[in-house]
Specification:
The structure holds two protein chains of two kinds. Chain A is α/β, with parallel strands linked by helices. Chain A is about 20% helix and about 30% strand. Chain A has a single domain, classed as 3-Layer(bba) Sandwich (Glucose Oxidase, domain 1). The N and C termini of chain A lie close together (about 5 Å). Chain B folds into three domains: about 170 residues, 2-Layer Sandwich (Aconitase, domain 3), CATH 3.30.499; about 100 residues, Aconitase, Domain 2, CATH 3.40.1060; about 120 residues, 2-Layer Sandwich (Aconitase, domain 3). Chain B has 14 helices and 14 strands. The model of chain B has no long low-confidence stretch (mean pLDDT about 95). The chains are: A alpha/beta, B alpha/beta.
């Protein structure tokens, strides 16, 4: 059982830990995630049909319409959001959604990007990951 | 992050609670993204469609009203998730309509210009070259940055409210000159392009470049404002293109090096074959369409003219429908020009101030849509589980009119 700590940039404050869900593809939040169920409903991605609820959701970057921020906020409001986000690069659209979530609904979902090591070389779906949004730290406990 | 006297006063709550709340958000984001200071923005384009904002966005808009907020810069808004004239007959649920009404009332109280369109630049929200604005709506952002040379990030839906209330945004991303240079070169070797080609080209560019800034070489001088609207809308759907340059067409690639003296990180070529393949890829249905939907982004008055010419003296088949999306202002203009009478006389329906991507289908039973828009083709399958036929406006009309 390996334990790996990587430094990155804290975009949104918070502390969380959970099981990683890794998407190598870009994620479209607007129209691509269903807030009322926390399910990825974008048929174009491999994780179609999977639940993001409570997961440490790792994907390269967001894409799609600028309404992604309220799509995220609604997912938070419905209680179906991931517990943390790790991106290669977090778009402003994604950060805004989680920041509003903090101010409007008291959500504690850290967002970290720009890790010193490529997250996709280190984190696999199923790994246990701790995310510290204050320090921009990610701690990975390998499942295998 | 540097903060001016007035900005600090807003942050401290000396200009009301709404400005304080908005500045807190902007300041937090500014610091997270390493902004050196705030900049003034000249206009905002917000979202007020319940279909994407959901209850959370509604609660956010109402929170700003409760806090006594007012938009302090000219602010337009995207289409609504209902059409005021048709929602009831389309079978949109009463409860949904009332949520949308609440959202509409909230932004009207904040002082929005009720243009309800994804093409604010057609109806009076028109920045100048180099001006900072704060817009949402990925297609409008691509247009403002690329075609006009104004400056905006892909401002998140809710964040625009903060910009509209304070007139400020953190100086990050595309507001900064050094972040506006092209990164990858896309050589377009396909000669003269049709409107449909521009859609397909945008779709390919978005797929190829992801979130990089592309420089397109090879666009013809015949490129129209409508063509560039489609190019950006498609590239912002299949990719994260907020700014593209087109040599000798767009202002930041005319008379100057769009790469800012650097070499392109990558070079791609798009030829006629690839455009054809992209069109085939976007067509997911072989079945006959029940409906033709056009106006994504919203049709301009010149596109409505073209549509009316195609429909003049023709009649749409009884079992087929035509949905035309445009702004209320452009629809009014089309009425005055006589285009609306021809289109409606042939059996078409205007859904002004509305957009299919962000609206419920209601009781409309449709499985296959034919469209001339790559953005519709990209979003409708996941949003409404529809099959798509992607074709030119003329072919769309041909598919639904009586012989």
């Amino acid at each position: 059982m390996g334990r790996i700590v990587i430094k990155g940039r804290g975009i949104v404050d918070g502390l969380a830990e959970g099981e990683a869900l890794v998407s190598l593809e870009q994620i479209v939040w607007s129209h691509g995630v269903e807030p009322s169920r926390g399910i990825i409903n974008d048929k174009k991605v491999r994780l179609h049909g999977q639940s993001i609820k409570g997961k440490v959701f790792v994907y390269p970057y967001g894409k799609g319409s600028t309404s992604s921020s309220t799509w995220i906020l609604e997912t938070i409001r419905c209680g179906n959001a991931p517990c943390a986000i790790i991106n290669r690069e977090t778009e402003l659209i994604i950060a805004t959604g989680f920041l509003y979530g903090q101010l409007l609904y008291g959500a504690n979902i850290p967002v970290v990007d720009n890790l010193e090591q490529d997250p996709f070389e280190v984190i696999e779906t199923g790994d246990w990951v701790k995310v510290d949004g204050y320090q921009g730290l990610v701690e990975i406990h390998k499942a295998k | 992050m540097e903060i001016s006297g007035y900005e600090r006063e807003m942050l401290e709550g000396r200009h009301g609670q709404a400005k304080k709340f908005a500045m807190e958000i902007l300041y937090k984001l500014g610091r997270a993204y390493g902004a050196d200071r705030f900049i003034q923005v000249a206009s905002a384009h917000i979202m007020a469609h319940y279909g994407s904002l959901h209850d959370a966005g509604l609660e956010l808009a109402e929170k700003f009203v409760t806090l006594g907020g007012k938009f302090c810069i000219p602010t337009t808004a995207d289409p609504l998730s209902i059409c005021h004239r048709h929602w009831r007959e389309l079978g949109i649920e009463e409860a949904y309509f009332h949520k949308q009404q609440r959202l509409e009332r909230a932004v009207l109280k904040l002082g929005v210009q009720p243009a309800w369109t994804c093409t604010p630049y057609y109806v009076g929200n028109l920045p100048r070259f180099g001006q900072n604005v704060s817009w949402a709506e990925s297609s409008a952002v691509a247009f403002a940055n690329s075609v006009i040379g104004a400056r905006t990030n892909r401002t998140p839906a809710g964040l625009n409210y903060c910009a509209a209330i304070t007139g400020r945004m953190p100086n990050i991303g595309l507001y900064r000159e050094e972040n506006r240079n092209g990164q990858v070169l896309v050589e377009v070797k396909a000669g003269e392009l049709s409107t449909l080609d521009y859609n397909a080209l945008g779709y390919l560019v978005g797929k190829i470049v992801g979130n990089k800034i592309p420089v397109l070489d090879g666009l013809q001088p015949s490129a129209s404002v409508d063509h560039l609207k489609y190019l950006g809308a498609a590239a912002a759907s299949s990719g994260v293109v907020a700014l593209y340059h087109a040599i000798d067409i767009t202002p930041e690639a005319t008379g100057r090096d769009p790469f800012g003296g650097k070499r392109p990180q990558e070079v791609f070529t798009i030829d006629r074959d690839q455009l054809q393949k992209a069109k085939q890829e976007m067509t997911t249905a072989q079945a006959e369409p029940e409906v033709v939907a056009v106006g994504c982004p919203h049709y301009s008055i010149s596109e409505l003219r073209t549509l009316s010419q195609l429909l003049e003296g023709r009649r749409i088949k009884k079992n087929k429908q035509l949905w035309v999306y445009t702004s209320e202002m452009t629809y009014n203009l089309a009425k005055k020009m006589g285009y609306a009478a021809i289109i409606e006389g042939a059996g078409g329906t205007f859904l002004e101030g509305n957009c299919l991507v962000i609206s419920p289908l209601g009781k409309r039973s449709v499985r296959t849509i034919m469209t001339d828009s790559a953005k519709f083709a990209y979003y409708l399958p996941s949003e409404h589980n529809l099959k798509i036929r992607f074709s030119s406006t003329a072919e769309c009309v041909q598919a639904i009119i009586e012989d």
